[in-house]
Amino acid sequence: MPFHFANVLLFTVTAIGFVFLSLFGGKFLRPNNPTPNKSLIYECGEKPIGQAWYNFNPRFYLIALVFVIFEVEIAFMYPVASVYKSFIDHGQGLLAFAEIFLFVAILAVGLAYVWAMGDLEWVKGLKQDVMKAHQAQQSAAIMAKKAA
Amino acid sequence: MQAFLDSLIRGWGHDPQTWVWTQLIYVAFMGLFSFAVINFAAVTAGIFSWAERRVAGRMQSRVGPNRAGPGGFYQWIADAVKLLTKEDLVPTEADQFLFRIAPYFMMVGFACVFVALPFSHRLVIAEMNVGVFYIIAVTALIVVGIIMSGWSSNSKWSLFGAIRSAAQIISYEIPAGMALMIPVLLSGTLSTQGIIRAQGPWPWEWYIFHDPASFAAFFIYFISALAEGNRTPFDLPEAESELVSGYNTEYSGMRFSYFFLVEWGNMWVMSALATTMFLGGWQVPFLPVTDAADKIAMLSGGWTVLAELASIAIFTFKTLFFVFIVMWLRWTLPRIRVDQMMNMCWKYLVPVSFAAVLFVAGWMLVIHAVPALDWIMRIVLTAGGAITLVMFWLRTLQNIKDTGDKFDFTSNW
Amino acid sequence: MEAVLFYIFAIGVVVAGAQVVLRRNPIYGAVSLVACFFFLAGIYVLLSAHLIAILQVMVYAGAVMVLFVFVIMLLNLKEEELGEMHVTTMKGIGLAAVLVLVGFIAWKALTPVQFARDMAVNEQIHGFGGVKAVGNVLYRSSVLPFEVTSLLLLVAVVSAVVIAKGKI
Q: Does residue C40 form part of some domain?
């Protein structure tokens, strides 16, 4: 078994060496005369405005959170899955099945909850925002009318 | 591979257990093998890029690259030379360190998959007892590379592409992981070679036709792998009509080529994994009937060599067939929207993959009690699959006849 | 051979870990964390804890890292907002605590212990640290913790949604 993981290390080293050597060797083959215009960030021909490092939508964050939890579930399931067959062969299959079923069923409740709360809807936030903005606009217009 | 090296050392008249230089020989040979495998991956990626353009040309009634060499085959070499000699630009506004280091992450994540990926009956770098699990784990490195490249570019397109890509890859990792769990359940091992050994050469012995849930799992895996490899119809991260080129927009020359290489090389990885897990891998038919699990090892003399070659050919054929299907899908399906992509994953694939795992676990109990049901189910599913294929074939022939389409191998090829 | 690898990995863990704390740019911190996890996975492999090593890469380097990066991008701290580096009493206390801890560990580590050999034997006999060994344990003696973990994950999903809802 150490042999197998030593291979992983070797592959890592070889892959890094492969990239490094081809980049380093290419250095002697390729031209290198950067100009300020060449070194600009591409923004469809315009000069780039500001930096790209901006705040983005929190729904990505929610997806990542849910993903981490299900990834942990998969991590727990694999060891169990790999011995399930031997349990069946030893006549303890029903017990093992009950365990797997319970584990998956409880997590399925979690998925159902996220689904029911509408957090799997990708465009829902946008719709809500538009609705809210619309309502605010209308109420502002009514207020303005009243004031007039 | 360890066994092979051990026999080599024994051939030199030493005992691998006690010989001082054993580890050095291991490192030297495995270093050589790793170099060979990475080059194999790079070359297949190059050839796929040519093949894809030819397939695209054929599907869209145009020619595709046909100037360099027979059928334009040397096109990919010309492309490689061009990429090597192109100026390597690093934007001044970019984060210099992360920008330069991102391709390394991509390549390491890609190359490490090949450690556990089999090529034939004997050709596998390391028969890990954690094989499948390991493959799922190391592909995570590619996400790190994508996020780093997108963030460090300091380009809006790159960042959009990287975030989309990260969200897509992590979402589809769940159904892919659950779908790959089904062969593990059925075979009771995580080793890729062990899973192939647990199957047989004939379609009704493959896991895809084992039961309805594993049939569904194969498609879940295939769709998820498409999404994880950023292939059409899931190429949102590099949607050229919206995001220029996604996370690799700012990369040029050789540095760009690694992203390209990983994407095309991934076609081999995902197809080979599908072949391994669901389609019987390298299993060779018509071998003499024995009780041994490893039938090829039971042969003798020239038959062994023949069987080994046949196992390479069968595995490569199955893999290339799926590579072709991936290309076919790319030129058939339009790109889907972000919300459709997320819905597809979380509302369809994830619940179905959960149900599939539970169904297979239950079905294994049933067939343990009534073994006859196992064979009935396999034969029914295989027959269903065969009938579908035949009907598809007839329909295609009919279409070709109706449209008068013909392929001319003599001119313009 | 193993000792050499161990020292390479250990130095990697320490350097990368220090980078996580010392780097001002949070993205660099996250990337150093990934590097740290990889070296740590290497050490787990040397300890023949193969399952843990793979979980380390899969869950931490793959999943948690993406989450961290998303959070960092969500908050989007600018270089200017971080303020100047100051030497404060808190930092002094922190440094002293680190030194004490390192000294304690070094003292413990220098006391010779003989268990590495037993573990190597264990691995050969029972597949110690492998996936199947853990699976057997999860089925046989740790059924309740295993199911409770599932409940814990359910709680995590629900709380993630509730907290995120409050913010969005």
A: yes
